[in-house]
């Protein structure tokens, strides 16, 4: 069940999504409040699980991770043991930035960040060595048009 948020909570969340390194004084000024109530609201939203964690966003190109692949996976395996091994494998692979189970013809989609096509092939070979997969299709992103972390409030 979603947590009830008022307009002030949403303003605070928007500021945190824009720049979580802002001081409480800065956030309070921007949302029209004072420091202590803002701090209390942030604390409450952390306790409620609205704010999961604070992290740094890194530039993949600056780190040499220039290739982004979307990997479409079809499997003929649907047993609990296979799924457990598959999910564990995905969690252990740092190249996998996102993984989603889908409805429809494709069972899973992965977002994989690597240096180049050779690094993707190494990832692919390791993946299929660990779990049986019926079909894998890799799509190379030619251009990132939009990528945001801020959720719509």
TrEMBL record:
Keyword list, A-Z: DNA-binding, Transcription, Transcription regulation
Pfam families (UniProt xref): AsnC_trans_reg, HTH_24
GO terms, biological process: regulation of DNA-templated transcription; response to amino acid
Gene Ontology cellular-component terms listed: cytosol
Coiled-coil region(s): none
Gene Ontology MF terms in the entry: sequence-specific DNA binding
Domain HTH asnC-type as annotated: residue spans: 5-66
Transcription regulation as UniProt keyword: yes
Protein name, as recorded: Lrp/AsnC family transcriptional regulator
Gene source species: Gemmobacter aquatilis
Source taxonomy: Bacteria, Pseudomonadati, Pseudomonadota, Alphaproteobacteria, Rhodobacterales
